[in-house]
Design goal:
- The complex is a heterodimer of chains A (about 120) and B (about 550).
- Helices cover about 65% and strands about 15% of the residues of chain A.
- With about 120 residues, chain A is an alpha+beta fold.
- Chain B has about 550 residues and is α+β, with helices and mostly antiparallel strands.
- Chain B has 6 domains: about 5-85, no CATH class; about 100-175, no CATH class; about 175-215, no CATH class; about 230-350, no CATH class; about 355-525, no CATH class; about 530-555, no CATH class.
- In chain B, about 45% of the residues lie in helices and about 15% in strands.
- In chain B, helix 5 (about 120-125) crosses helix 6 (about 130-145) and helix 9 (about 175-210) packs across helix 10.
- Chain B is elongated.
- The chains are: A alpha+beta (about 120), B alpha+beta (about 550).
- At the A-B interface, helix 1, helix 3 and strand 3 of A face helix 2, helix 3 and helix 4 of B.
């Protein structure tokens, strides 16, 4: 089993949920998203984010506007769309169920391991 | 001191060291190629570039104005290497080492170091040598004739190196051991990356249906795919080389034919032949139109497709991008050639429309005895020429010499005269736009017959005067023999007798014949046995000399 690979696959599944979630709180631009994701160690390299953002935008979950910046070129500010909100809700619910389900299994197994000892 | 460039990344100006620039350029190219098949690639790349600009902006301080290679390494480590982008399935490398795409090498014309169009310097840059060698080569090729056209083709086919990137591609990297090693390593890494990408794709598609089936089979399949891709490239280049060789030989043959640079290309045993074009052009075309115009027409009609063949070959070999409008232009030139050639063909065809003849009676001094001796004198001029200075058509029937002399054999027939005199009529035929033109042309045919006492000597060929076009001229001679009178034919008469008329035997030459009401017959004469044997031996000897099969026997023996 390739440990890093498995970890990466776990992260990958929730990445879209996290991005939508960050954007739903307030309008943000790419660096804000990157910083938050990096803090939580959800992404390793920034290059990962851009194709994802473009894909979410193309599917109509996100939109963006240009905003002037004091320290450089104009920035893209992303905001969530109505469809995006619905998708986020659904993904969120799915995530809660998943966490519960996974925890159920893991905790059960863990307690069994403990009792066996 | 270091050389710097000024670059514009997503609207921000940066000063950047040369080495840093090359790394950044290569990185961005590798990102571009990674996303080349993704929907919305321009947007992704723009976003990434503006992020790079942001990171670089942070690196600029009052004391440090120039982006250096460390900054670029930082950018690459933050943004990640292309294969790390997609689904983050790659293991993170321990040390973020710089991802470099293998430098692409392409053939360009180096117009900054050019004598004419930079073809030689471009080729030299491709092979990392001094342009002087190619220049010398071209000058030598120029003397042998095709250098000019080769240069022209390469000029058309090879694009000019305009941008910095193209200039870098033109030079590629110098070939030495460490670079070969590096390029092999890069290639392997690159391949690994691609295989991984493809594996991911394959997995993604298989996943939905049967997750357990994404086994080694996919890897094998993808590895085969890569092998086939490289094999395919090699085959393409091989085809290119073959096309080039074929194209060049056809082109040289064609030019030699049109402009008469080479010797005669002639197959005497077949009716189809190629020969020096000018020889025929003069005989066909004088008065019809400008021969140089026809040469251009033929050059466009046949030469242009050959040039296009060479052009595609060069493109296949050196992987040159298609130059716009070349095909379109070539097609138009070809059409122009077609029109010019068709015009000439039409004009010539018109000249062949009507046939007519002129009839000329030759007065024959009647022989004192009742026998007329017939002989042939060789008046062909080609014996004085070297083999490559004349052309033979239709098994000695027509001969054209290099200085434009035209010879053709006349055809002789025998008929019964309705008077008691030997008579001879010469019909000379020709074709022309009108009957009159045909007749006028026919009268220009030159043919001589000599008579000395009872010996009639025919010329073996009739001639056309210089500057008279060949319009299917031919000559028919009729010799009218009174009943009961005799002719004797020399062996050489064989050349001009019209055997297409099958009413007399094939052994006319070398014998005496008498005109009867049934046509020519062997003279019935009592020979002594000695005479018969002598005649037989003489015939046998003659036929052996002429390499004929001896299939006749004197009738009276």
């Amino acid at each position: 089993m390739n440990l890093e690979k498995t970890k990466a696959q776990m992260r990958k599944g929730v990445l879209e949920l996290c991005i939508l979630s960050i954007i739903s709180e307030s309008d943000v631009y790419a660096s804000d998203i990157i910083n938050k994701l990096k803090e939580s160690k959800l992404i390793v390299v920034e290059g990962t984010l851009y194709p994802l953002l473009t894909r979410l935008k193309n599917e109509g979950f996100l939109s963006y506007r240009w905003e002037e910046s004091k320290s450089g070129p104009p920035r893209k500010y992303y905001q969530i769309t109505e469809i995006g909100k619905k998708i986020l809700e659904e993904l969120n619910m799915n995530w809660q169920e998943l966490v519960e389900a996974v925890n159920n299994i893991i905790i059960k197994e863990n307690s069994e391991v403990k009792t066996n000892q | 001191m270091k050389k710097t460039f000024t670059i514009n990344v997503s609207g921000t100006i940066f000063h950047i060291d040369e080495d840093a620039y090359e790394r950044l350029n290569s990185y961005i190219n590798s990102v571009k190629s990674h996303f080349s098949k993704v929907e919305g690639k321009e947007e992704i790349i723009n976003d990434i570039e503006s992020r790079i600009a942001e990171i670089l902006q942070e690196k600029i301080t009052d004391s440090k104005q120039v982006i250096n290679i460390e900054d670029i390494k930082h950018v690459v480590s933050v943004m990640g290497q292309p294969f790390e982008f997609d689904e983050e399935e790659q293991e993170k490398k321990e040390e973020s080492y710089y991802y470099q795409a293998r430098p692409v090498k392409r053939l360009y014309r180096d117009t900054e170091d050019s004598v004419i169009a930079g073809v030689c310097s471009g080729i030299a840059a491709y092979f990392h040598t001094d342009p002087i060698w190619f220049r010398i080569g071209f000058i030598i090729a120029l003397f042998s004739g095709f250098g000019f056209f080769l240069y022209l083709i390469l000029w058309i086919a090879i694009p000019e190196a305009r941008t910095t990137a193209e200039r870098l591609e033109m030079r590629g990297e110098k070939v030495n051991i460490s670079n070969i090693e590096k390029s092999i390593k890069d290639e392997v890494d690159n391949l690994k990356g691609k295989i991984n990408d493809l594996t991911d794709q394959a997995k993604n598609t298989f996943k939905k249906k049967s997750p357990q089936y994404r086994t080694g089979f996919d890897h094998v399949l993808i590895a085969f795919g890569s092998i086939f891709k490289y094999l395919f490239k090699a085959i393409i280049i091989f085809i290119g080389i073959i096309l080039f060789v074929v194209g060049i030989s056809l082109f040289i043959t064609f030019l030699a034919t049109i402009f008469g640079w080479g010797g005669i290309v002639l197959n005497e045993h077949s009716d189809i032949f190629i020969t020096q074009f000018p020889l025929f052009a003069d005989r066909f075309l004088s008065g019809v139109g400008n021969i140089s115009l026809l040469k251009f027409g033929l050059f466009f009609l046949i030469g242009v497709p050959l040039i296009m063949l060479l052009y595609s070959a060069v493109r296949l070999i050196f992987r040159i991008d298609k130059v716009r409008y070349i095909g379109f232009t070539a097609f138009n030139i070809w059409i122009a050639g077609l029109i010019i050639t068709a015009y000439f063909a039409f004009r010539i065809l018109k000249d062949f429309r009507y046939q007519d003849y002129s009839k000329k009676e030759i007065l024959i001094e009647q022989p004192k005895s009742d026998i007329l001796y017939l002989d042939v004198k060789q008046n062909r001029g080609y014996d004085y020429y070297d083999d490559n200075e004349y052309v033979v058509i239709c098994d000695n029937d027509i001969i054209i010499t290099e200085d434009g002399k035209f010879y053709r054999e006349p055809k002789l027939r025998f008929k019964e005269s309705n008077t008691d005199q030997y008579q001879m009529i010469i019909y000379s035929y020709a074709r022309g736009k009108t009957r009159n033109a045909a007749k006028t042309l026919a009268e220009k045919t030159i043919y001589n017959i000599n008579q000395e006492d009872s010996l009639l000597t025919f010329n073996s060929f009739f001639e056309l005067p210089n500057k008279v076009n060949w319009r299917d001229q031919y000559l028919r001679i009729e010799l009218l023999i009174p009943l009961g009178k005799k002719i004797h034919l020399s062996y050489e008469m064989d050349e001009i007798i019209d055997y297409h008329l099958n009413y007399y035997p094939y052994n006319l030459p070398g014998k005496t014949w008498i005109m009867t009401i049934n046509g020519l017959e062997r003279e019935k004469k009592k020979f002594s046995l000695k005479e018969e044997i002598e005649t037989y031996q003489k015939v046998k000897k003659e036929y052996r000399k002429n390499n004929f099969v001896l299939n006749i026997f004197p009738y009276s023996l």
